[in-house]
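Summary for the funding panel

The consortium committed to producing paired sequence-structure records for every protein in the target list. Below we show the first two records in order, beginning with the earlier of the two.
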Amino acid sequence: MMIDLRSDTVTKPTPAMREAMRNAKVGDDVYGEDPTVNRLERRAAEIFGKEAALFVPTGSMGNTLGVKLHTQHGQEILCEAKSHVMNYELAMAGWFAGCLCRTVAAGNGILTWDMVCKHIKPLSPHWAPTGLISLENTHNMAGGTVTPKAVLDEICDGAHALGVPVHLDGARVFNAATALGIPVRELTAKVDTVMFCLSKGLGAPVGSMLTGTRDAMDRARLYRKRLGGGMRQAGVLAAPGLIALEEMPARLGEDHANARLLADGVAAIPGLTIEPGRTQTNIVIFDTAGTGLTGAAFAAALGERGVLCNAVSERGVRFVTHYDVSRAACEAAIGACAEAAQAAPALR
């Protein structure tokens, strides 16, 4: 059996989730009549301390709605250079919201107010004004790094003082909260909207949530319809989402421990390098340059040895731990890395 470390999106629904899908009470959600969706939205809002929430098919749609809610055509969005909103959402900030992304590079993916404030632009006849700051916590392409609450709060306070809203791409925000040892509602208290995924570390088969004010979510519901996200008897999808929301955050620490195991194991292999201390959550990114192989070639070599993973740059490979990958599987993956590195041209 293959060890699948490509992403935490590959998880299969648990038996309890499958049973909940079979027994879900449903109605037409476009009419607001699906009781299971309504329950999920209420519970998500409660957990995040927001007025309301909206169930969306994907995290990318949730981020697109979050951007659209806060901006006007012709504005700029400030975001980190390697952020998901910038690089992996098919330029929806431009295509749907009519906004330009102004990127700010942070080596560890963690933006600070000092980095951001110098790029905020007021209304002017010469440039696009700043309409939104979009943050990502945890930061995927920085290796799952966590923005601390104090850093997040300082950005929100500074932005709000200038009349600029803040959206959080919290696809893995429960991983961030777990690493910090605080509730998600405390971590995200000052952001205006939060998107989080049910279908990554929480293990639901599909779906994400957008949370914010009631007025914002009412408007987001209309934008969701425009994007084709108006679902009918969606309770069969919301039911496993409720289990993901209520039960799965408590086990994320296991994924973090397995990721640290992988990081330590990879760091000990000649030819592979990983930045010490970068692995904070469930994502491990390492460099293959010392093996003489590209990231894609090394990932292919691992595939031949029963480990699936993704190359994320010319020399970078990413592992993502999740509840379908055991500690023993992670140990086996380390062994596969050692074999692949030893067989690489630079180490023969």
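The next record, for a separate protein in the list, is shown here:
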Amino acid sequence: MSSLPTITVDLDALENNYRFFQKKRPSRKVAAVIKADAYGLGMEAVSRTLWRVGCDTYFVAFFEEGRRLRSYLPGATIYVLEGLPHDEFKTFLDYGLTPVLGDFKSLQTWTEKAADRLCALHIDTGMARTGFDFQEAVQIKQAFPTLGVDHLMTHYASGDDPISPQNRDQKEKFSYLKTLFPEAQTSLANSHGLFLGEDFCGDMIRVGLGLSGLLEEGLHQGSLKSAITVTAKIIQLRALRKGQSVGYNATWIADRPTRIATVAMGYADGVSRALSNKGHFYFNGQVLPICGNVSMDFTTIDVTDCSCNTLEVGASVTFFNNIETLSELALAGDTIPYEILSRLGRRCLRVYTKDF
């Protein structure tokens, strides 16, 4: 039996979560954001599962992801958030991808070579990351009066903070720019953004993290279900005497006789090195602290106080399995759940609860 870390994906939970967002905003279209291999859940399984329950529109970050997704879903509408790479114009046409344009050079190329195709425009209203700024957006309408735009988009910088005044400021800027493109549909909210209120959403909601069910329960009152559990196996147990060190650079030293377990999951698999001496795994609900530096393939944990007599070589410990355990890890590593999910390693085994 393999010792590789295992990502178990509950596809029934995934379907439940997609339907939750449909019911939450029934007058809005719900698109799935499945960039970064569907946030660690697996692009193929997630896209095919959502297609079966009626999701026909998807967002990816890069054209390579769009090309891959097209092989799974020939009939889907696929938006590419990076815009139009200047040397990949033909790829967009061949694979029927729709660019989310955010710079004038790409816009010029698109209008010259694909005048009969619609595009999406990304307007930066506060992220200062990608997209046209406010003044550029005004110029677009003047410079390209016949441009076909199917969606005008922006992205909330503080959508996960409902009391941030930045949300309303961005919405108001966007509302003004929308008057320049009256024919276009709109898209503003991501998973967190749709909870800001009906008038913050736009015509289409882009749901990514929410599909996994890993949003704060206060937002959805338990209606979302966790769709992902990550576990790893113990491959060795050893007893240490007081004063022995663990791991590279001896950053952890036993202050008592200690029982250590070596887990077959390291930073190559998604256990960030920032969790060294800070993070933890779980076994039957008990917290097992990481001790020593996380290495590429293995992590050592302190199991001295574990009361479960079934913790032995071959047993599986849990990295995370719900928003609570994921949030605890993110806090310990001074990061966010998105980063932990997207760093899950390629060699992790994925197990799905049903066929897709």
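Regarding this second record: The first strand starts at residue 6 and ends at 9. The CA atoms of residues 67 and 95 lie 6 Å apart.
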